[in-house]
Amino acid sequence: MINNSYLESTKKQFLYYKTLGEKAMEQLEPEQLFVTINEDTNSIATIVQHISGNMLSRWTDFLTSDGEKEWRNRDAEFEEILKTKEKLLQSWNIGWNCFFEALNSLKPEQLSTIIYIRNEGHTVIEAINRQLAHYPYHIGQIVFYAKMLKQSEWNSLSIPKNKSNSYNSDKFAKEKSIKNFTDDELNKLQ
Question: What's the pLDDT tens digit per position in 62-76?
Answer without folding.
Answer: 999 999 999 999 999
